[in-house]
């Protein structure tokens, strides 16, 4: 339709996506075969059919199972290349990619294989598609703070190829405060920071992210609406929220797209961006996320353009590069 082509054609950002959550089902089967691994599904349709979740944990269980197919440098290269090609076709001009090394290093994959594969594919996409790209290292909040510190140490040889540090994983019971020293260390080493907060967790976790971790962005952030003082501060400081509407739907953070708080967040003057999170698992890249919001919430063309522009403003780029993207 007209609006679909219009949204796909808009130069967009994807600031909240996980490389290991971007493996399309057929690629997962191909990588499993290549590595001599047996999956519980033998067709792409059967695997896609398993992408039905009750909550964040039920998703994480399947997602960490899927991570097992990423073993060699070539695997990390191929999955990153596939995402970037698809995002480029979707009209993404700037992507910031999370990878969580702990899922792979715990099984003996050397950090070098992971970093070389991902960074090599990113360099190719810059050259072939003209994309602007940044890599962010994400740690797991359901593991310990010393584990996170070890990741920070492991990736320091690639410091100049990493734009930021983030954190995901099982949110409830693992508040930002558990990682205060880790985020201080990340900031001391010159990284931008972001943290998943207020996805399943309460507004208090978003508050901790802002005050204790002093992050530059909040990933998700939906729950902030329960705390009016917090909303005021987030708006006044223009802290970007990387919202992922279809992720929220599929993980039952919202019961339907019509209940999604995107418009409420926008109405409070928050710096809202729309992102894909884990596209095949949640059945949508950035365009589908924007269109789902438009259909359910009645976004105007101006509101869609505003959300897309917010993404460019929230990107971890120099002012010079931001001007070039606008
Ligand atoms: C997540 Cl560790 C991780 N990866 C992908 N998506 C996520 N959502 C919350 N934590
Ligand atoms: Zn995420």
Short description:
By secondary structure, the chain is of the alpha/beta class. The protein has helices spanning 2-9, 25-34, 44-49, 56-66, 73-89, 102-105, 111-129, 145-155, 180-188, 203-213, 228-236, 245-250, 262-267, 279-282, 286-297, 301-314, 319-325; strands at residues 12-18, 92-99, 132-140, 164-168, 192-197, 217-220, 240-243, 271-274. The chain is globular.
Task: Identify the notable features of this structure and list them briefly.
326 residues; alpha/beta; TIM Barrel; 8-stranded parallel β-sheet; 8 strands; 14% strand; binds 6-chloro-9H-purine; binds zinc ion; adenine deaminase activity; ADE; Ado/ade_deaminase
Here the CATH topology equals TIM Barrel
Element-by-element helix/strand order:
HEHHHHEHHEHEHEHEHEHHEHHHH
CATH class value: Alpha Beta
Output the strand order for the largest sheet: 1-2-3-4-5-6-7-8
Helical fraction? 40-55%
Biggest sheet architecture: 8 strands, parallel
The count of DSSP E runs of length 2 or more, i.e. the number of strands, is: 8
Proportion in β-strands:
5-15%
Rg, alpha carbons: 18 Å
């Amino acid at each position: 339709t007209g609006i679909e082509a219009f949204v796909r054609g808009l130069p967009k950002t994807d600031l909240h996506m996980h490389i290991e959550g971007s493996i399309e089902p057929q690629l997962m089967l191909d990588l499993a075969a290549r590595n001599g691994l047996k999956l519980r599904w033998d067709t792409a349709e059967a695997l896609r059919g398993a992408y039905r979740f009750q909550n964040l944990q039920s998703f994480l269980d399947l997602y960490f199972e899927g991570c097992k197919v990423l073993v060699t440098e070539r695997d990390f290269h191929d999955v990153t290349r596939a995402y970037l090609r698809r995002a480029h076709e979707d009209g993404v001009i700037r992507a910031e990619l999370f990878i969580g090394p702990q899922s792979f290093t715990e099984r003996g994959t050397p950090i070098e294989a992971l970093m070389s594969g991902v960074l090599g594919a990113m360099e190719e996409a810059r050259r072939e598609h003209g994309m602007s790209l940044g890599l962010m290292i994400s740690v797991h909040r359901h593991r310990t703070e010393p584990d996170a510190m070890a990741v920070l140490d492991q990736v320091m040889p690639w410091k100049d190829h990493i734009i930021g540090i983030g954190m995901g994983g099982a949110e409830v019971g693992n508040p930002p405060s558990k990682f205060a020293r880790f985020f201080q260390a990340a900031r001391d080493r010159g990284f931008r920071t972001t943290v998943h907060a207020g996805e399943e967790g309460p507004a208090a976790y978003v508050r901790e992210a802002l005050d204790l971790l002093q992050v530059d962005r909040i990933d998700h952030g939906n729950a902030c609406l329960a705390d009016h003082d917090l909303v005021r501060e987030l708006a006044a400081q223009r802290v970007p929220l990387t919202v992922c509407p279809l992720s929220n739907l599929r993980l039952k953070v919202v019961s339907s797209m019509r209940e999604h708080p995107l418009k409420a967040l926008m109405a409070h003057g928050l710096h809202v961006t729309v992102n894909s999170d884990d596209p095949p698992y949640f059945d949508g890249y950035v365009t589908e996320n924007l269109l789902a919001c438009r259909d359910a919430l009645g976004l105007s063309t101006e509101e869609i353009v505003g959300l897309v522009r917010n993404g460019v403003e929230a990107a971890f780029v120099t002012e010079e590069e931001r001007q070039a993207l606008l």
